[in-house]
Amino acid sequence: MMWRGVRLHCPLCNGRRAWFSGWFKQEKACRTCGFKWERGNVGFETGSMTINIIITFGLIAATVLTVTLATLPDIPVTPLMVALVAVGLLVPILIFPITHTMWSACDLTMNKLDPGEYTPLPPA
User: Fold this and answer.
1) Total of domains in the chain
2) Residue 72 lies in a domain
3) How far apart are alpha carbons 23 and 122 in whole angstroms?
C-alpha cells in the first residue's frame, strides 16, 4: 500500500494521480474511486507534513555527512551552505504530493475503513 502512495496512486483503488490534478492542486476525493483524502480526523495533514519534514531533514543530514567526509580536512563551507539551502527549499516542493499519498496509505494501513466512510463513485 505504501508503494502506491510513493507512486501518487490512491492507496485504496490504485488509481493514478489520485487526489492531484496538478502538482499543488489537490482534489477532495480520488478521481477514480471517490475515496476521500481527509478521513474526518482533525489535523490529518500533519502526518503528510511530518513525512515531508523527515525526508527533507534526512537529505540535509546526508548532504552534510557526504560533503564533510568527502572533503576532509578542508570543508568548503560556502558551497556546502548553498547545497543545504537548495535541498531545504527544493525537496519539500518536489515531494509535496508524494507525502500526501504516502500519509494516506499509512493512515489507511493503521485505521481501516469504517462502514459508511467510503462511497464508491458510479461507473462512468
Assistant:
1) 1
2) yes
3) 26
59-94: pLDDT as tens digits: 999 999 999 999 999 999 999 999 999 999 999 999
- Within-domain flag for 93: yes
pLDDT in tens, 15-41: 887 888 888 898 888 888 888 888 777
- In-domain check, residue 84: yes
- Residue 115: inside a domain: no
Q: Is the pLDDT of residue 49 over 70?
A: yes
CA distances from 54 to 12, 18, 49, 51, 95 (A): 24, 23, 9, 5, 11
Of 118, 5, 52, which is closest to residue 19 (Cα–Cα)? Answer: 5
